[in-house]
Amino acid sequence: MAKIDFGGTLEEVVTREEFPLEKAREVLKDETIAIIGYGVQGPGQALNLKDNGFNVIIGQRKGGQSWEKAKKDGFKEGVDLFEIGEACKKGSIIQYLLSDAGQIAQWETVKNNLTPGKALYFSHGFGITYKDQTGIIPPHDVDVILVAPKGSGTSLRRLFVAGKGLNSSFAIHQDATGKARDRVIALGIGVGSGYLFETDFKREVYSDLTGERGSLMGAIQGLFAAQYDLLRKKGHSPSEAFNETVEEATQSLYPLIAENGMDWMYANCSTTAQRGALDWWKKFRDAVYPVFDDLYESVATANEAKITIEANERDDYRVGLERELKELSESEMWKAGAAVRKLRPENK
After folding, report:
1. Which domain holds residue 260?
2. Please, what sign has the CA dihedral across residues 111, 112, 115, 118?
3. Is residue 204 part of a domain?
4. Of the residues 199, 230, 246, which one is the last residue of a structural domain?
5. Helix H or strand E encompassing 250
6. What is the mean pLDDT of residues 212-228?
7. Are residues 178 and 255 located together in one domain of the fold?
8. Active site positions, annotated
9. How many CA atoms are closer than 13 Å to the CA of 346, on its beta-carbon side?
10. Residue 32 and residue 92 in contact, taking contact as beta carbons nearer than 8 Å
11. Does some domain include residue 286?
12. Is 133 exposed, middle or buried (0-12, 13-18, 19+ CB in 10 A)?
């Protein structure tokens, strides 16, 4: 592993240079990788592994939308597309990529096919970390490993096709065979990771749930909504409010941050913008820190897991979920966003 200085803290990471794709193929040459679930992470990981030359099969409920999507993506029924139980039986590595709720529902089927020496792979630490709520407790004679790409399966696939990579964390919860480390790193390289950094299942799920509810999704939507609503109440048009709140951020400034960091983005803005941002960022940090503290506590005490599991168990959950998503899509801000996106030169 390479030692990298992350702002004064040395971390060991795995790069493609020290663990090339050829080595990953050698490690997994005799393995059959069964991707269970073809929804969010499944397609990206399955297709990247397949394109990288690994033996991949899909396990999915027959006849559903995900089954049909797998067929559309080139997987063939009875060849490399099977019902979940059959795929689990055939796979020596079971990549358990169903939703957290789906993992709970299908656990007995998966567990019954975890014969000694197999590997059970996750891309999220939820099921193992919150085992008291999920009931997911693997047998002791299988490897239990994790590769968690830091982004959606769609992004993982798009970056792979573009010849790039998405950074991933990896973890080993159980090494029954003595091969777990090579297996998990090989899989991380195989799915298209840019580099791999080590964690454990608990830290992965704690950081992931905090991030999703915080700066990746929940806090960003809240921040956007607050500024947009304020500008509209102060008399600004929807176009002006949206452009100053979202469009300029995502199309101009966030790419600069991705390229070289926040300081570089600041340096490439006007002196007026610099001064204002420097004066106000700590006020925003201090205002939201208590919210993040509450959020992390809710994650660490398993309250967020309880909320998620109980919500998914309700018969009317899907109906309610669609209603909440519709509230977003039909808000003035995101209707304005749809209009703005159509006016981008590349979309005309």
Report:
1. 214-347
2. negative
3. no
4. 199
5. none
6. 97
7. no
8. 124
9. 2
10. yes
11. yes
12. middle
Q: Are strands 33-36 and 9-15 parallel, antiparallel or unpaired?
A: unpaired
* H runs (alpha helix) in 174-260: 180-190, 201-213, 218-233, 238-242, 248, 254-260
Cα separation, 43 vs 70, whole angstroms: 8
Q: Please say if the pLDDT value at position 1 is more than 80.
A: no
Amino acid at 250: T
pLDDT of residue 283: 97
User: Per the structure block, which two tokens stand in for 55?
Assistant: 């033996």
Give CA–CA dist 103/97, Å, rounded.
Answer: 8
* pLDDT for 348 beyond 80: no
Query: Does some domain include residue 171?
Result: yes
Domain limit, last residue, from 141, 165, 199 = 199
Q: Tens digits of per-residue pLDDT, 81-131? A: 999 999 999 999 999 999 999 999 999 999 999 999 999 999 999 999 999
Same domain, 167 and 292: no
**Is residue 294 situated within a structural domain?**
yes
Which DSSP symbol is given to 137? -
Tokens of 30: 């005799």
CA angle centred on 329, ends 345 and 215, rounded to 5° = 85
Model-level pTM greater than 0.90? yes
Instruction: Check pLDDT > 80 for residue 186.
Output: yes
